[in-house]
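User: ok so my PI wants both of these folded by tonight, can you help

Assistant: No problem, let's get them done. Here's the first:
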Amino acid sequence: MPDSGSDTLAGIDLMAGLTPEQLSGLERLCRWKRYPAREQIIDRQSETRDVFFIVSGRVRVVNYSVSGQEITFNDMAEGSHFGELAALDGQPRSASVMALSDSLIASIPPEHFLGMLEKYPSVALKVMVHLAQVVRITTDRVMDLSTLGATNRVHADLLRRAQKFTGGGNEVVIHPIPVHGDIASRVSTTRETVARVMNDMARQGIVERRKDTLVIRDMKRLQDMVEEVRGE
């Protein structure tokens, strides 16, 4: 059970639309655990099949090359879920997940997760939509890695991140500020390359650093830069 009255599944996007009674029933099936920043939550190739809900905090989905290089797939905030692939197909984990900040995580055994999908069609549909989004994002990233140079991959990654914060205007504020090492991990390049590209964009007036935020001052120009090299 949750360790305080405010720690529930009510804030999990997947559960939106369920009644308090339905949520309470699911909460009783979960195991609740707090993870400090940088602690591993699941390990790639492990045989566990639980599905995890981020009640509070942030996590990172990663893999590691043979040489130990960290490859970042995604950063996820509270309200998100992860681990459903192993629950659905019974195969080992496809990636590792670690806490980026102190996080409260609820996990549900695979048999109860599958039962939830059968009992609540709205939840099952959200899982399918989420997996479709993952496929689309992965396809875009594979194309970028296969066809774009390092500089253009940094532009594309920054555009993807900015689109999550946009309200439709030409100026977008990204918070917290993207870390150069994290961008490098996502686009398979070096911190030095990312720093050079960001400095070039600042000189061109496309981005501006303000305290702990990064401001995209000209979203249209950034989008045009990415679309031009992608041939869109």
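One down. Here's the second:
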Amino acid sequence: MSSNGLIKLRERIAPLRAEIIQHPAFQSMKSLEDLQRFMEMHAYAVWDFMSLLKSLQRKLTCIEVPWQPVGEASIRFLINEIVTGEESDIDPEGDYISHFELYMRAMKRAGADTGLIERFLHRTSEQGLDAAIAHDETPDSAKQFLNTTFRFIEGGKPHVLAAVFTFGREDLIPDMFLSFVDHLKSQFPNEVGTLRYYLERHIEVDGDHHSHLAYQMTEKLCGNDPIKWQEANEAVMEALEARRLLWEGLLTAEVK
């Protein structure tokens, strides 16, 4: 049963969440080229989702040696269960793969340009995150999206990270997008098949099992503390606004 804090948070974000799901960027998609452009922008969100997830694991579990127990075992279970599914899911052939790597494979199969996100990741390794985000090749809306996420990460508050992870992330792909992908798959089965599989796994794993685990994690971390729930509310609203602006970037054709 959901706590009062969780119910109020859902009610507060409902209008903005609906605006994101009904965004004109989805309605404007008509072709395989439109899908490719979407995937090139969305790749930044798929990647920083993993960074947010790992920041939670780092905060809520022990990743150091020598090992020491950290926090509640139930919370450790929740985050480790999610990490396992996101970092080591199965691909269509039954081999293990992270959701980000699966998305990259789907991009290549669909003919989308993976060079943008690959060069971005190379810069994070060679020049650091700030330089990679600030680079001219990174679309402006992706810059604000990434800066928002990593500001939460740097803030280091587990309840804020959990709330943003739970309510500001990958459950914001609407049914109309799924229908659009299914339509394209009927025309381009080889190009779009991997993306459809990725979305199926996303719905099956992230949208069901992982979402329930994330709700529990957020409730446990916020507890009965009104200040934590207020901080969680504000952070989620900021994260959702950053996502709305990311979709705006699709309409302005920022991807170079």
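Residues 189-222 form the longest helix (34 residues). The two ends are 46 Å apart (CA to CA). Good luck tonight!
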